[in-house]
């Protein structure tokens, strides 16, 4: 069981994060504001594209759930050599005037998630793969150089 307080990120038991020092997501005060179905179908985004960030001894690994998206609809970028940006767009399904919609729950529109990366990563070796609606981004770690330590003889 982790002793890290839940305000440092989402915990695995479904708790929500209050503060994540590495996340650059912008809080949207209107996120849960009720809208008409036509507005939400045309303009809502996959704002809450769920992303897990795991650190291993070798790399930082990000996994994003992006169901229904093709790899051509997703962009992975590094900004300012320190920010991982995952973005994309799900297009609105074409409407047929003869169709009657009974429920519209799937979102469409653009999404962007940004994560500030630590300094010990190899930005030039970032890899991304998409399989079964899950985007995996691997950011390898750079070896931390240990400082040279020289013992000084104490005379006396």
Automatic annotation (TrEMBL):
<protein>
    <recommendedName>
        <fullName>SHSP domain-containing protein</fullName>
    </recommendedName>
</protein>
<dbReference type="InterPro" id="IPR002068">
    <property type="entry name" value="A-crystallin/Hsp20_dom"/>
</dbReference>
<dbReference type="InterPro" id="IPR031107">
    <property type="entry name" value="Small_HSP"/>
</dbReference>
<dbReference type="GO" id="GO:0005737">
    <property type="term" value="C:cytoplasm"/>
</dbReference>
<comment type="similarity">
    <text>Belongs to the small heat shock protein (HSP20) family.</text>
</comment>
<dbReference type="GO" id="GO:0006950">
    <property type="term" value="P:response to stress"/>
</dbReference>
<keyword id="KW-0963">Cytoplasm</keyword>
<dbReference type="Pfam" id="PF00011">
    <property type="entry name" value="HSP20"/>
</dbReference>
<keyword id="KW-0346">Stress response</keyword>
<feature type="domain" description="SHSP">
    <location>
        <begin position="42"/>
        <end position="156"/>
    </location>
</feature>
<dbReference type="InterPro" id="IPR007052">
    <property type="entry name" value="CS_dom"/>
</dbReference>
<dbReference type="InterPro" id="IPR008978">
    <property type="entry name" value="HSP20-like_chaperone"/>
</dbReference>
<feature type="domain" description="CS">
    <location>
        <begin position="46"/>
        <end position="150"/>
    </location>
</feature>
